[in-house]
Each structure stands twice: as structure tokens, then as C-alpha cells.
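INTERNAL AUDIT FORM
Audit reference: QA-55
Scope: verify that the stored structure record matches its stored sequence.
Auditor: D.O.
Record contents follow.
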Amino acid sequence: MTVRVVSALQAAARDNSAVAAGTPSIELMRRAGIGAARVLRARYDALARRGVVLFVGPGNNGGDGWVVAGELAAGGFPVRVAQVGEPRTKDAREARDSARAHLAAHRPFDSASDAPGVVVDALLGTGASGDLRADVLEAARDIEALRRKGVPVVSLDLPTGLDASTGARAREAVSADVTLSFGTVKRGHLVSRSACGEIVVIDIGLGAHADLDDGAPILVDASLVHALLPPIAADAHKGSRRKLLIVGGASGMAGAVALAARAALRSGVGMVRACVDHASLAPIQSTVVEATAIPWPSAHEEIAADVAAWPDAVLAGPGLGAGARPLVERWLAASGAPVVLDADALNAWAGDASSLGTRIGGRRAVVTPHVAEFARLAGLSVEEVLADRWDAGTALARTLGCCVLLKGVPTIISGPSGLAFVSAAGTPALATAGSGDVLGGIAATLLAQMADPLAAAACAAWAHGRAAEIAGAGRPLRGVTLADVLEALPEAWRAPTALREEGILSILPAVADA
């Protein structure tokens, strides 16, 4: 089952659709609470047996918390519920009344005399936004005080004070060690990853209702990537693994092409050729010995037909430098190969996206801008792009007639049809010069090997981020370089072998501030 990344309104629409189709809303709440209790026991069994304190609010998020409390008490765990306001919904009241029957039959947890093992935050959920007020603010402060003492905090659906749609955090919002999201991932989770800890997406039985046709993008994870990736045949040869041409490498910028070439080779391409400035020929061939190299054609020199026909894909942009447009235009005119455009190959068309779309000409293509490059190409401000990051890519994809991979936290991959993917893989290790060149090499390799540019771009974004996670595992972020990320790429391509936990749709690792 695919996992969608949704706004608060889109999350509510999925619940409402399931209810309208015959699933009682209290049943969705029960599934959420039972699933959360199961994950909590799996993550914190020993600590939970020392006692669990649940802070429950007045809405349906509090109702989820009451279900968790009842499940834990029925399982023999010492439990105490700190109720913040009377339940306001019928479902929350029913969940409370049911839980109280279990709580009354088991030993309560006396938090006045015993330190809790785990804290559960069930104060506010997907529908909440804005500042914390009154009793909820005091409860959030109590949770934070326990967290500072080393008690792990598990938030239900969202850490209290985190806006589900924007990722904005209220003053004194809760920070979680684990966030248990129900049925979907919320946009806010991916914008404010450090506030959420590990994100575990629990199946609450939305089924087909999770895939409402409202533009919510699909989360890219290991299972999806390995379902999309084509295998390398046992009888493969360098030609069948495809040929990649990289156009870039102005004088003094050969390193960008070297990074892209290394990434392509570590992503399974069969052959790499670099088309670079004369001054970069020797550096490229001494740095990436597996690659061949040719010089940029002179201004009046035609690109030979056999040279133009050689690649199965072209990556244009790494280290290309100022004045890139004429060279990129000549390559696009000479070769009909699929193309990935990045950096100066995009900046050359600042404010002129429609002309670039004409040059792309309907071929399989991916553009990979960061936010500032996107803004320049689309004729927008950076602030406008950030405010509309979830939908801006689709508009540009339609203008260009190709896939748009908007780099950032998270990375959003959009196609002209409106279908989109989101990759949340990665760490701040990628926030360094040359990271985009590595991504370009991965994306161009997969574009050469895959028929669907959107799928190729989604897989590339995830593998790029996953390699960074592997490179930084167990190490301080400072000192993790792109060389480490490249070394980790082979491991990123490894297919998952562990079975997913029962009732779990996806898991996103914690990404902390470093």
C-alpha cells in the first residue's frame, strides 16, 4: 500500500471518505489506538512496565490516547492519564469510558512517587494550529520537563503544537522521540523532522480511501524504490547498462563533473563520457579513470552525429558556468536523448521557462532545481516558492512538459500529469556544495535505464538521501562529506530484507539537529 503525504484537510477527507463508505469513526479511533499501543510496546516494553503517563486532550487525538491507555492497562502496564479538558466529541467520550473500565481493574501508575518510563502526548492532533493555550500549554511544559529528564516522548499523529499542513511550530511545542502517524504522513512531519523523532505510519484500514484523487503526493520509501528499479540482468554488458554523457566542467569546475560521474558509476551506469572545457580534460581523466572525456565544441563547430547519438541520457549543468545557454541549446538540438538539467543549465533560462520547455521538446526529461534555481526559472521569489512548495512543482512541470525535482526538506518530485512523489530521505550532510551534482549523476543514470522519468527521479532522490543516512549513521554530522555519501551509495541500493512490522505502513528515521 502506498503512503500519501497530506495536509490537515486532506487527512480529514480520507477519514471522512472511509466513514461515508461504512467504517464507523470510532472504529478508526480504535484501530489507531490499538496500533499505537502495539508500537509503543515494541519500542519501549521494559520502560513502559515502569509506568506510562498519557496526556490526553479534549478532541479526537485525546480519544486516541484513551484507547492507548485502555490497551496498555489491559495488558498489565501501569498507566496514569492526565486529562486536559473534558472530551468534546462522542467518539472521545466513548473511548474514555471504555478505557476507564480497564484502568479501574489494574494497578494505576503513581507518578507522584515513581518516575515514568514513557510519556504519551495525545493533546492535539491534525486539526490543531496556532499557539498553545491554557491547560494544553501547561501540559506541554510538563511533557517537556519529563523529556529533559530523559523520559522518551511518544506523540500520537503529531507532536502537540506542530501544524500538520505547514510544519510551523507553536511556542513551547512538544518535541517527540517517536511520532505515530495514522494512515498517512502529514506535510508538517516532513518540514519539521527534528520535532518528530522517528515517524512510524500505522495502518488504520483506510485502504483505497487513502488514495483520494486530490493531488496528495506519494511517499517514496525503500519498498517503493525497489519495486520500481529495473534489475541488472545476469548477462548485462556495458551497453545494456546504458551510456551517460555529462556536459559541464568549466575551467576550475571539473570537480562537479567528477562527482556526477562517480555517482552515476555507483548507480549502475555502464559508460560515462564527460564533455568539458579543455582545461578540465586532464583533471577529469585523472580523477575518474573509468570515464572518457571530450572537449566542448567550439562556437562554430557542429556536434558530430555519432557523438550526439552516443548517449542514452545527457546530464547538463554540473560546473557548466556562466554563458551555458548556447552550449545546452546546441546539445538539445543535436541529441534527442533523455536529459537531466541542473544548476547553470537551468539558470540560463531564468524567467524564460516556456522557452526551455520548447527546447526540451517533449523528450523524457528531469529538471533538478533547488529553491533559488526554481524561483529564478519560474520568475518567482524564493518566498513564493517556499509558500507553495507542495504545488509549485506541478505548475512548472506543465510549463516545461517534464518532471520537476524540487530539492529541499523534503524533496518533491512532480510530473505534468499532476502525479507527485515526496522523498523524505536524507540528512544535513547533503547541505553542501556538490550534493546536487551527485544527485544529477544518480538521476541521469536511472533516466537512461527507466521508461518513466517521474519514477526515475523519485528513486534517485530517495537513494541520494538514503546514502547520506547510511554515511552518517553512528557518526557526528560534522566531517561527513560527499565522498562518504558516494561510498555509501552501493549500500543504499540494497533491497530491504527485514519484514515490516505488523500494521506498519512506513518508517522514517529520526533526523536531529546536529
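Auditor finding: record pair retrieved intact. The chain has a mean pLDDT of 95.
Action required: none
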